[in-house]
Amino acid sequence: MESHVARMREPFDLVFADPPREGLSPVVRQALGRIWPRSLFLVSCDPATFARDLAALLPRFRVRSLTLLDLFPGTHHVETLAELERRP
Fold first, then answer.
1. Which residue in 24, 32, 45, 57 is the catalytic one?
2. Is pLDDT of 6 > 80?
């Protein structure tokens, strides 16, 4: 997957990223900064990797909304959905 991400050259209006628990890889974070979509939805199941990935993306994007999703009631697991928009 990462080798394909590195080769993308087309403009994108929307990207939806749902990485594994380890979060976005450095290659994917860099590629998102390069392709700079108008909107980026980022899903995360781990608050620590979400914070790391968001911090890396904020120079090029701003947070439009954050939503917490309790998909597993009765557990401590919560999904985070961030809607980011490209900075002008």
1. 45
2. no
The three-state DSSP-derived secondary structure of the chain is CHHHHHHCCCCCCEEEECCCCCCCCHHHHHHHHHHCCCEEEEEECCHHHHHHHHHHHCCCEEEEEEEEECCCCCCCCCEEEEEEEECC
Closest CA to 44 of 34, 57, 31: 57
Residue 10 has phi, psi (to 5 degrees) of: -75, 150
pTM of the model: 0.82
75 is catalytic: no
- Strand pairing of 39-44 and 14-17? parallel
Summarize pLDDT for 14-47 with one digit per residue, the tens. 999 999 999 999 999 988 988 889 999 999 999 9
Does the domain spanning 2-86 belong to CATH 3.40.710.10? no
